[in-house]
Amino acid sequence: MSEGDAADNDADPVRAVAQGTFDLIHPGHVHYLREAASVADELHVIVARDPNVTHKESPVLPARQRRDVVDAIDAVAEAHLGHESDIFVPIERIDPDVIVLGYDQHHDEEAVQAALDERGIDCEVTRAGPREPKYDDELLSTGRIIDRILERRG
Ligand SMILES: Cc1cc2nc3c(=O)[nH]c(=O)nc-3n(C[C@H](O)[C@H](O)[C@H](O)COP(=O)(O)O)c2cc1C
Ligand SMILES: Nc1ncnc2c1ncn2[C@@H]1O[C@H](COP(=O)(O)OP(=O)(O)OP(=O)(O)O)[C@@H](O)[C@H]1O
């Protein structure tokens, strides 16, 4: 390897990817993104498009707005609107060294790892931990925030 290559390799930042719906942002999201950012030099976040949120109610906020808010979080280098149909398109573009799944996300690490290997994408898959409530009334779920809104404003 020539000296130039070695220098180039040193300059390459370690990139992590986190992803999710991020509808109404709460401290649980911030915890996840900070934990994901802690394992890399820069954190890229893929924000899910409505059609790909199939395992729960559709988000109330537009994807672009959800992306803009996540992009403003200090731990995040850049937030990206997810691809409409192929979740590996942004992965191939960002080319992360590690994908950090959320503590309760329905993705199976081994399955995601196998899909990456199949595409020849050299990237680890790990999972973040949960953020426990700091006080009784803390709402750490978008669903529960919406329930509270309906209770009080519905
Ligand atoms: C590796 C990976 C890449 C993803 N890329 C996209 C994408 O390009 N477009 C998209 O709409 N969702 C993408 N997603 C998000 C999923 O579609 C799904 O909506 C999200 O994981 C839901 O997480 P949540 O229930 O925690 O919000 C990706 C998820 C993973 C694990
Ligand atoms: N309390 C929490 N602690 C750590 N991570 C969290 C917490 N809440 C959400 N996350 C993570 O944030 C990411 C995005 O979560 P999502 O957008 O589904 O929000 P949510 O609050 O979990 O939504 P809902 O409660 O409606 O399912 C996921 O990876 C999820 O694991």
Overview of this protein structure:
- This protein has helices at residues 3-11, 27-37, 63-71, 88-94, 109-118, 142-153; strands spanning 15-20, 42-47, 78-81, 98-101, 124-127.
- With 154 residues, it is an alpha/beta fold.
- It has one domain (13-153): 3-Layer(aba) Sandwich (Rossmann fold).
- The protein has a 5-stranded parallel sheet with strand order 3-2-1-4-5, with helices on both faces.
- Strand 1, helix 2 and strand 2 form a beta-alpha-beta unit.
- The protein is globular.
- The termini are far apart.
- The protein binds flavin mononucleotide (FMN) and adenosine-5'-triphosphate.
- Residues 18-147 form the Cytidyltransferase-like domain.
- Keywords: ATP-binding, FAD, Flavoprotein, FMN, Nucleotide-binding, Nucleotidyltransferase, Transferase.
- Belongs to the archaeal FAD synthase family.
3D shape: globular
What does the radius of gyration come to? 17 Å
Which sequence of SSEs, written as H and E, runs from N to C? HEHEHEHEHEH
What characterizes the major β-sheet?
A: 5 strands, parallel
CATH superfamily: HUPs
